[in-house]
Each structure stands twice: as C-alpha cells, then as structure tokens.
Automatic annotation (TrEMBL):
<feature type="domain" description="V-SNARE coiled-coil homology">
    <location>
        <begin position="130"/>
        <end position="190"/>
    </location>
</feature>
<dbReference type="InterPro" id="IPR042855">
    <property type="entry name" value="V_SNARE_CC"/>
</dbReference>
<comment type="similarity">
    <text>Belongs to the synaptobrevin family.</text>
</comment>
<feature type="transmembrane region" description="Helical">
    <location>
        <begin position="193"/>
        <end position="212"/>
    </location>
</feature>
<feature type="coiled-coil region">
    <location>
        <begin position="111"/>
        <end position="151"/>
    </location>
</feature>
<keyword id="KW-1133">Transmembrane helix</keyword>
<dbReference type="InterPro" id="IPR051097">
    <property type="entry name" value="Synaptobrevin-like_transport"/>
</dbReference>
<keyword id="KW-0175">Coiled coil</keyword>
<dbReference type="InterPro" id="IPR010908">
    <property type="entry name" value="Longin_dom"/>
</dbReference>
<protein>
    <submittedName>
        <fullName>Synaptobrevin</fullName>
    </submittedName>
</protein>
<keyword id="KW-0472">Membrane</keyword>
<keyword id="KW-0812">Transmembrane</keyword>
<dbReference type="Pfam" id="PF00957">
    <property type="entry name" value="Synaptobrevin"/>
</dbReference>
<dbReference type="InterPro" id="IPR011012">
    <property type="entry name" value="Longin-like_dom_sf"/>
</dbReference>
<dbReference type="Pfam" id="PF13774">
    <property type="entry name" value="Longin"/>
</dbReference>
<dbReference type="GO" id="GO:0012505">
    <property type="term" value="C:endomembrane system"/>
</dbReference>
<feature type="domain" description="Longin">
    <location>
        <begin position="6"/>
        <end position="89"/>
    </location>
</feature>
Amino acid sequence: MIKYALISRGSLILADYTDQETDFAVISKKILIQQNKNQQKQLFIRDDYIFCFFGHQEQTFLCVCDNQDKFKQIAFQFLDQLKDAYIQETSYGKDVENSGKSQQAILSLMIKNLMDEYNKGETVVKQLQNLAKLEKDIEQVNEIAKQSIDKLMDRELKISNIEGKSKYLSISSNELKYNSKRLKKKMEGSNGINYYLLILIILVFFAIYKYIL
C-alpha cells in the first residue's frame, strides 16, 4: 500500500500527499538531500517502510510503502506512472516551481488520485484473494462431505451384504435341520427293519434246532 508520495526538484518538494499523520515528509527530505545524483531506481528502508525513488531530468519521484517484497515492484510502477502524469501535466511549458500554490495543489491532487487508484487496486486484490480462499475452503468442505457420503454408502452396502449373508445362513441352517430330521427318520426306519430281521433269524434258528433234536 502506498503511504506517501512526492515530486521534487532537488531537495525542494514541489508537491506531495499522504492521508496519514507521519514524518514521511521529513525523512524523505533528508533522503533527497543525501541521495546520489544519478537517475537510477533506489530504495531506502526505514523501520517498517520502504522509501522508493528515482530521478528523471531535474525531478525526483519518491513514494513510501510497507516493507514487504511484493510492494517494491508496485512502488516503482507507481513512480513510473507518476512521472508520466507529471510530464503530461507540465508538457505545455508550465513551471511548477514558479507557478504558485494552485499548480502545487493540482499536482498534489494528481498524486492523491494515483495513490487512491493503486491502493484501491491493492484492496481489490486482497478481496479477490479472500474470495479465492473462501472458494477453496468451500471446495474442501464439499470434498469432506463427499468422502463422508461415500463412506456412509459403503458402510450401508457392507451392512446390506452382512444381512444378506445372515439370511442365507439362516436358510441354510433351516435346510440342514430339515435334512437332519429326514436322515434321522430314515435311520430309525432302517434300525426297525434290522430288528425284525434279527428276530426272524433267531426264530428260524430255534426251529431248525428243534427239528434236529
């Protein structure tokens, strides 16, 4: 998030803007005094903030953002766009330094609008990230619910199989009892026949014995 931004000529601040009560302007002025005279993009870390800046011709463009790696590239993109907006605003021979407070106010408003645009974009990105996270959480919940349903269906299938097997065993047990009774009756009938045959043999034996005597 862009916290503060300015446009300067040397160490003279032509316009700046921030919506926070900080000492960014004081620190930035010290950086402008001590900065190298080259036009390269540079950064200065102070506590939880990064001061990003570069020079273009006689002007310096500087902004302050949170000390996070993801903001470094965004900060320099912001400064590039700020430079282009400044060039467009002053492209008709306007001298910002000597044109009075009205021009300074115009540049400050230009900085504010650009900051709002970037910070709003950052807010939108966060909202999209939160939405993506919410969608991911919903997908995880749906997957857990699906797995639970699959497990429940598998459990019901197993119970159904057990009930089927139990019913089959019950039928088999009844058939076994029925067959056992039939076999027992057959065996009892067979034993009766053998008993009568034995008596008949004994009687025949006694008859033959008496005849011999």
